[in-house]
Design a protein that fits this description.
The complex is a heterodimer. By secondary structure, chain A is α/β, with parallel strands linked by helices. Helix content of chain A is 43%, strand content 13%. Chain A is globular and about 60 Å long. Chain B contains five helices and six strands. A four-stranded antiparallel β-sheet of chain B has the order 2-3-1-4. Chain B has a two-stranded antiparallel ribbon with strand order 5-6. Classes of the chains: A alpha/beta, B alpha+beta.
Chain lengths: 388, 160
């Protein structure tokens, strides 16, 4: 029989972290700090809208780009929150989560051999989506000493004639790093100078604890070379609803729409009706959740400081990324031993790229009681490790 | 600063001041002072425990009593309210707009105990015109906390 598989798909390696995940999922008594989604339920008014939309029999496809009423609300929201101006009719598409938006943007923009710069550690989908789109992923390893922000020097060093897209995954999963306006301005200058495009994944935009989040798309001359991605999963605790969106110049968006139209048709209709309520009326709910995450963030930082665990202060998302280099173990070894000996699951940093080696990702999408117990165990564990 | 502290302790009154200060990004002495000030000013009026007596297997009867009264000369409703709230079995007294004047919550061990309070003590007050007693059959939510059993979806243990 012929090989049923494409050469390209075989170049994508299965994620090494799967094995570790399987072990965790089999341990019933393990406490997990390994989850990348909010612990809150979707706010009730949003759920209520979805129920109502079902009662009203709104169970049909929507237009390919998504409900116009939703796009209009998103457009107003982006203006209100981040000073972004996008035409809901020509520059916006509602997608199946931010993930789909990443995929169709890369597929719409890349030719074989085009290089995509991907700062790491970062979310795991940029590399495979680039490969599937015929592009060449080029990781930019970020450094703890820069609080895992992308510096102009790091960017310049990786730019070649083939570079086409820079992915900007901030606020960042797994590090919790943010890029402030002053950081983005320097990056924007280089992007314009080298005629690059930016794919900015701002799914955690609502979860920043410093000042209000700034989008690179709001900087002068950047909107025309940026694909902006956001969604409902993290801000509104709507991961299971699978709803995100992309905004881009019409010339790019039209082509993304083609892929979306043929591969997906449209995002789930009831999720879209529910999302109208989210963007329209849930700013307070988002703030409540953000304040709660912020308390946990401060709590963890304080605990790490008291146990002398090296960790930079993260200002975004709901992750904290302490260094475990002092224990002379790899991230994998540390996570495995911590799980076996103390029954707490964390994600090894190298799951998010080689530059994550020497770190672990701790999610604080957990109640304070839960965090307290887990961090007590972490303290025990590292005390034992230090004694040898 | 008051508001930040209050909105936290409204639902978490078991405070460890040092920990609260860390979580709110304030200094410990500042939080301690603010708490003491607010206690002195009676902004913080008490620290209570929310109990599901049913689950504890201890029987209690709670009634919400609508009371219509005649306001007293010079004292308005306050004097009548004072009469009512001084009974220890009375849990709360609110002056209400609408069809009646006071909403009185009362807790007793048995129906008879509550009924006796209403007929002997409350109804006999000179200024009380009428009462209507509503017994609580089930508490679904109290003080912002859901008491009913709510099904909870389960997250996976690990996701990237």
């Amino acid at each position: 029989m012929r090989n049923p598989l494409s050469e390209r798909i075989e170049t994508i390696k299965p994620s090494g972290i799967r094995k570790f995940f399987d072990i965790v999922n089999e341990m019933d008594d393990a406490i997990s700090l390994g989850v990348g989604e909010p612990d809150f339920d979707t706010p009730w008014t949003i759920r209520d809208e979805a129920i109502y939309s079902l009662e009203q029999g709104r169970t049909f496809y929507t237009s390919n780009t998504g409900l116009l009423s939703l796009r209009k609300e998103i457009s107003g929201y982006l203006k209100r929150r981040f000073d972004l101006s996008y035409d809901p009719e020509k520059e916006m598409i509602v997608t199946v989560g931010g993930s789909e938006a990443i995929d169709i943007a890369l597929r719409a923009m890349l030719d074989p051999g085009d290089e995509v710069l991907i700062p790491e550690p970062s979310y795991v989908s940029y590399v495979p989506c680039t490969i599937l789109a015929n592009g060449v992923p080029v990781p930019i390893p970020l450094k703890e000493e820069n609080e895992f922000r992308l510096t102009p020097e790091e960017l310049k060093e990786k730019i070649t004639d083939k570079t086409k897209i820079l992915v900007l995954p901030f606020p960042n999963n797994p590090t919790g790093a943010v890029m402030e306006k002053k950081d983005l301005e320097k990056i924007a200058d280089i992007v314009k100078e080298h005629d690059l495009f930016v794919l900015t994944d701002e799914i955690y935009a609502e979860l920043t604890y410093l000042e209000k989040h700034v989008s690179i798309a709001s900087l002068p001359g950047m909107k025309e070379r940026t694909v902006y991605i956001n969604g409902f999963s993290k801000a509104y605790a709507m991961t299971g609803w699978r709803l995100g969106y992309a905004c881009a110049p019409e010339v790019i968006l039209k082509q993304m729409l083609k892929i979306h139209q043929f591969a997906i048709m449209c995002a789930p209709t009831m999720s879209q009706y529910a999302a109208v309520e989210a963007v329209k009326n849930c700013d307070d709910e988002v703030k409540k959740m953000r304040d709660e995450y912020d308390k946990r963030r401060r709590y963890l930082l304080d605990r790490f400081k008291k146990m002398n665990l090296k960790c930079f202060e993260p200002f975004g998302a709901f992750y904290i990324f302490p260094s475990i280099a002092e224990f002379g173990m790899t991230s994998d070894e540390f996570a495995t031993r911590f799980l076996q000996e103390k029954k707490v699951a964390v994600v090894p940093g190298n799951a998010f790229g080689e530059s994550g080696e020497g770190f672990i990702r701790i999610s604080y999408a957990y109640s304070l009681e839960n965090l307290r117990e887990a961090i007590d165990r972490l303290e025990e564990f590292i005390t034992e490790c230090r004694k040898g | 600063m008051y508001e930040k502290i209050l909105s936290h302790i409204e639902t978490n009154s078991r405070i460890n001041v040092a920990e609260l200060a860390v979580q709110l990004g304030m200094d410990e002495a500042g939080v301690m002072n603010a708490l003491e000030e607010m206690e002195a000013k009676h902004i913080i009026c008490g620290y209570h425990t929310l109990i599901d007596w049913d689950k504890a297997g201890i029987e209690k009867v709670t009634a919400m009593i609508e009371v219509r009264v005649t306001p007293q000369r010079d004292m308005g409703f306050d004097k009548v309210a004072m009469h009512i709230y001084n009974y220890p079995e009375v849990q709360s007294v609110y002056l209400i707009s609408g069809g009646f004047d006071f909403m009185v919550t009362l807790e007793g061990k048995t129906l008879r105990e509550v009924a006796e309070f209403v007929s002997r003590k409350l109804s006999t007050l000179d200024s009380v015109l009428s009462t209507k007693t509503n017994f609580i059959l089930k508490k679904y939510k109290d003080h912002g906390t859901i008491m009913a059993e709510v099904p909870k979806g389960e997250r996976m243990k690990m996701t990237l």
